Amino acid sequence: MKEPPAVLIAGAGIAGLTMALALARHGFGSRVYEREPLLREVGAGLQLSPNATRILDRLGVLAALAPRAVQPGAIELRKAATLERLARVPLGAEAEQRWGAPYLVAHRADLQAALLACARRERAIELVTGATVEDAEIAGIGVRARIRRGWITEHAEAPLLIAADGVWSGLRQAVSAKAGNRFTGYLAWRATLPRDKAAGVLATHDSVTAFMHPRFHLVAYPVSGGRDVNLVAFTSGDALRQEWAQEMSDAPLRAAMADADPALRQSVKAVSAWTVWPIHAAHTGTPWTGAGRLALIGDAAHAMPPFAAQGAAMAIEDAAALATLLARHRDTPPVALSAYQRIRKPRMARVARRGQFNRFVWHAAGPVALARDLVLRRREETALMADFDWLYGFDAEAEIDG
Question: 33 catalytic, yes or no?
Fold first, then answer.
């Protein structure tokens, strides 16, 4: 009879698969439940800063992802109305040397495929699709999970359950009755555009570029080996339905970009369809662990607006940190979970503050925008790089071992 897994994981997205791989690296078996019958990642591009890629490299995922990823030359901040470049943070080889790992951009589906390929090669990982972990309760010195497969309900027991089931986590309530989400008032408009259909700077740049404007900001970077351009624009708006992604007319986006540079407006017009994501954030102040046997990671724990481009990176950091702690406290999971929350929450709070700062800067208007432009024009590239040392130079595993 096959030995039962040490850990149950709810969700086979970026957080869940990284968690399974990190556990396997430390000798733990896991069973990953995914509600979708076929694994497929929705969304568009994502940024993988060095604090994430150093972990992916240790897990063997980076080698699988590299052929489809792009290493951008820089992060640029530009004014959307004129395309004037206000600031540049060098990436590429310079960033890799400074922070010890590459800064990459990729399509979410490519990262998902790389994680899945590595997980399927790992004998310690069992993947169950078409199965939703609906609830859990403490049972003795472990946890008992209720799992639904179509019309069938079954149960599974293990010493530990990790909820990696995203912003709409069904397991948050098992940790805290006060856990939940709030709509932030922002919409993310996501699309990929073939490079040959992009106009102006979007057709030629190899950077991660944020185009700033009081009514919106647009982030663009190459994906899929450089063949496509990932576009994500952020505007204020209403969440019409409690769904993660929905189809909408692009009229609100075009209205927000009415006085943007013509090349930006032309590229937006060339997009055949936008996927609109109402941006929700998890309630702060609620616990990430329950009874020493249940832990939330990634968006299930701390979904936040993506203005720091750290959503995937924080999920990857969570997985690495929690696996390291479980290995250190192999016989006392409650001690590991308590340390996980104590160590990770301050890090997440700082990242969230950085995102709030970015939103303020990128959407500045009037005299505040004039002051912003003056400050950014005067800052040296080396000083701008130093601003990110705490974020990109961070090693989630070394933080535990140190």
Answer: no
